[in-house]
Design a protein that fits this description.
228 residues
């Protein structure tokens, strides 16, 4: 991945309070898990993508906002590498409240480009040699929309996909409280609520498609009979 990473630390509200407690190590997961999942999901989509989708050879422009917690933001004797808080549910307890007097995370923006070129999904098993930690949900999101593009009827008037834009709030949850397997779930929440909660992340992905080699010099993105 050729990254153009701009790490912007927006704010850290670290006000003293006894009304809230910092996240325990079991409540967090490495921030890199989200980026790894994103790369794995795109790789899976690329391997199965038809010419019609137009994504092969294009670039995914990613704007990712993570609520990052570290030992500096938590304080005390707790030692944490940069991590994000696991989903705490629709109703938060004492640890993470929308009206909490103390915020234990830093809003961290990462902006980078991902070249959409992959001959295999090897990246998915390259994370700690553990395939279960390669993709935690992004592949399903990408593949679902690409499948709908492929299912659209071919023929005149011809259509050509010009781009994709994905914008969502999400959270990372532990599948079965195993501590090993995680998944991404989309969250519907207002901007104010998303800002107040330490366990809600956001992502925006923009992909402008590129021309694909087709029959008789035509653009493979066109919905022509027999394309694919």
């Amino acid at each position: 991945m050729r990254d153009i990473v701009q790490l912007v630390l927006i704010s850290s509200a670290l006000l003293s309070s006894c009304a809230s407690r910092p996240p325990a190590p079991t409540d967090v997961v490495a921030a890199s898990l989200v980026i790894n999942s994103l790369k794995c999901g795109l790789a899976k989509s690329l391997v199965d993508a038809s010419k019609r989708t137009g994504i092969k050879g294009s670039v995914a422009v990613v704007d990712l906002t993570l609520k990052v917690v570290t030992d500096q933001t938590v304080g005390g004797s707790v030692k944490l590498e940069p991590a994000i808080v696991l989903y705490q549910g629709a109703t938060l307890g004492a640890n993470f409240g929308g009206s909490s007097e103390r915020k234990y995370t830093i809003d961290t923006h990462l902006k980078f480009d991902i070249k959409l070129k992959a001959a295999s999904t090897a990246i998915c098993s390259a994370v700690d040699n553990d395939p279960s930690r390669g993709d935690i949900g992004f592949a399903g999101w990408f593949q679902a929309i690409l499948a709908e593009v492929n299912h659209a009827a071919a023929g005149e008037p011809l259509a050509t996909i010009k781009g994709y834009s994905y914008d969502a709030n999400f959270a990372v949850t532990n599948k079965e409280d195993s501590g090993l397997e995680f998944s991404i779930i989309p969250i519907k929440i207002s901007a104010t609520q998303a800002y107040q909660r330490d366990d809600i992340q956001s992502i925006k992905i923009t992909i402008d498609t590129v021309a694909q080699p087709g029959a008789n010099g035509e653009d493979g993105r066109e919905f022509t009979p027999g394309d694919g």
